[in-house]
Amino acid sequence: MNVQVAVKMKSGPSIMLASGTWFDLLDPWNSEFTIEDIAQGLANICRYAGQCRRFYSVAEHSLHVCDTTDEFKLEALLHDAAEAFLGDITRPLKQLLPEYKAIESNVEAAIFSRFGLDQAAMPDVKLADLRVLAAEQSQLMPNGTDYWAAQSNIRPAPVIVQFLSPYEARERFLAKFNDLTP
Q: What is the mean pLDDT of residues 104-118?
């Protein structure tokens, strides 16, 4: 019996994307991923390792970060795009996995190159991401979880978590991408 699995070894470990193409985790530069693949993955991944009040996707989070920035909106929309292929790993776990961080950096660089994003945008995007994080935590997590924001002088972004379904988050993510690209 010949059983096909959605993991293969090409030049490195690869995963099958919803579009039917393979994504090589060690060679993302030569993988034929699309914005639809990114939207699909982000819309189906729950933030906070699922430890929040209700399902809240990385795609919806990305829309909030995009809406919080004044400049670099496309970079903000795609700031977590690598998670579409790698998953949303919690920050404490990432700190324990230096090899993962190197893989993530390589995937991020390939995405930035593929979509012509400006690496200089990252400090502005990171600030918007922290502001959205502070707003999310006050809406999604137990009381007091967002204590760090006041201590760090981070002003929560004026966002309202809508708990979009994966389908709605994917569609809004793609619509925003299309609005931001010529």
A: 96
